[in-house]
Amino acid sequence: MHQPNWIELAGVVNMRDLGGITTESGEVVRPRRLLRSDNLQDLTPESVRTLLETYAVTDVVDLRTHVEVAKEGAGPLRGIASVRHHHLTLYREDTEESGIPAAERALPWETDERRAAAEAAEHRPGHDEYWSEHYLSYLATRPDSVVAALRAVAHSEGAVVVHCAAGKDRTGTIVGLALKVVGTPDEVVMADFAASAERVAAIMERLRARPAYAENLAGKTVAQQSPQPDTMRLLLAALERHYGGVHGWLGGHGWTPADTERLRRKLLAD
């Protein structure tokens, strides 16, 4: 059974190392290659030193919107010359000023009629279908950012931190795709995705204290915001059904076999 490798640092509540995950072929993701996290804005100087010295972080993939970054700041790692930053939002940037748009069901295989029917149905936050469609909208809306994020992971010299605000939705989608590219079983990807549920109460407490997120979280419950394994299962199943899997979707957006090999060498090589 997958056991999350939590990284307990002051300033974050949902950071973990993907090291130790085993692929279908028996290869193992190496530690200190790929980290995932919530917002890095509150990292203390000691936490920054730990990431630089203990984890050898050289790259940060920031999946937040430009408005989020403007309101919250880029975070203390932004001022470190040795750390490359890749700002790759998964939302359109022509939405309302909040910068945290509602989930759009912009699924390429749906007709306008089916999409309207979905909007009329009772897809309340907390339903696996709601969230899987939310994550699929990232891929439909910003395939350029999805591919660029995976390439940033593949080409990082040291450890790379992928993060958004909570470290569970946008981050979970990108990390899940990365794990599938290198051959991780669906069940393991689902388990890693759902591990953030352990930290959702702390995540919400932290984000409710931030102006950029307080209104968006008003009235939301821990249960509604907790990631479930079936959400990732539905996401992967949709990609399999419509594109032949993660590789098929990525291949349709410029991802190459060379990219796959580069990511495998990054995450799995000794």
UniProtKB/TrEMBL annotation:
<dbReference type="InterPro" id="IPR026893">
    <property type="entry name" value="Tyr/Ser_Pase_IphP-type"/>
</dbReference>
<feature type="domain" description="Tyrosine specific protein phosphatases">
    <location>
        <begin position="144"/>
        <end position="179"/>
    </location>
</feature>
<dbReference type="InterPro" id="IPR029021">
    <property type="entry name" value="Prot-tyrosine_phosphatase-like"/>
</dbReference>
<dbReference type="InterPro" id="IPR016130">
    <property type="entry name" value="Tyr_Pase_AS"/>
</dbReference>
<dbReference type="InterPro" id="IPR000387">
    <property type="entry name" value="Tyr_Pase_dom"/>
</dbReference>
<dbReference type="GO" id="GO:0004721">
    <property type="term" value="F:phosphoprotein phosphatase activity"/>
</dbReference>
<protein>
    <submittedName>
        <fullName>Protein tyrosine phosphatase</fullName>
    </submittedName>
</protein>
<dbReference type="Pfam" id="PF13350">
    <property type="entry name" value="Y_phosphatase3"/>
</dbReference>
